[in-house]
Amino acid sequence: MSNEDRCSSRGRDSNRYPFPAYPNGWFRVAYSDELRAGQVLSLELFGTRLVAFRTVQGTPFVLDAYCPHMGADMGVGGRVDGEALRCPFHDWLWSGDGRCLEVPYASRIPARAMTRAFEVVEKNGILMAWWHSEGEAPQWQVPDVDAFSSSGWREPVVKHWKVNARWLDMNENCVDQAHFRYIHGTLAIPATQASHDGHVFRAESHIRQKAPGGEAEGCLVTVDHGPGFQVVTLAGLIDTVLLNTATPMDEETTDVSFMYTVKTEGHPRKEKLAAAVVDDLVTQFHNDLPIWENKSYWSRPMLCDGDGPIGEYRDWMKQFFTEAPGKEKTP
Ligand code: FES
Ligand SMILES: [Fe+2]
Fold first, then answer.
1. Does ligand 1 come within 6 angstroms of the Cβ of 87?
2. Domains identified in the chain and CATH numbers
3. Per-residue buried b or exposed e for 263-279, using 16+ beta carbons within 10 Å of the residue's own CB
């Protein structure tokens, strides 16, 4: 073990993770129903205080929270006024693209009155914002996931966790084939096949599990679209899709949410089974949780030939880092 690896041993210091905390990509800032027309949300993501608001007409926006005038947090007491946001302190009016539209008591708006605005898209019932450490424009689109808009699929169930670990520890589970056996109780270690193309990484594992009356085979496919949006499909006794959206809050904390849907096509037996499947997936998440929250991060783990494509996944992930001062780019 190298000295560098030793110094990243567990401890709440900045050496726990030897790579930047905030990769570039689309990240969930809220579910659609958490931000109704006229509402304002205060957010703490990417180590940054943000404000989200939805205009009276229904358009969602995300801005830096601290007002450029005198620094009030617009997520605390700010209010929607038509299609813009009023700061609570001196009533300046901010548009969703970051421009100041009005200073109620001044004859002219200061020339530099701008705040940072984020690109936002609303898909699959989720508001996603584009984070880029150097302010570059979005480089890909968030996909629509058919299961969340097709008939025959159950009303989605949403679960939320605040996890004391970085998103990478969690997302790389999809290629950590040995842990399926020892954490999730599969009957054998599945062979995980991986491929990637640009911002998309796909992993597929064929798993055997205990089931009522014997054992069942299933196919687990995860497709990552950048670091913040992972679609997990589990086909077997019953088809299940979950969206894993993990948004960095600060250097060590991640806001993780899973949104599950199950294909029941209205069959009462499948409806019953669906609830059990979601309960089981939540239990599986809780099996992972103490590992993630207490593990260290080795940039050069001692991998063996049965470990699966973990190195390939980390190599793919490097493309999302452009902030590098003082940190390795390499996950
Ligand atoms: S601090 Fe926002 S208007 Fe003054
Ligand atoms: Fe896992």
1. yes
2. 25-131 (2.102.10.10), 146-320 (3.90.380.10)
3. bbeeeeebeebbeebbe
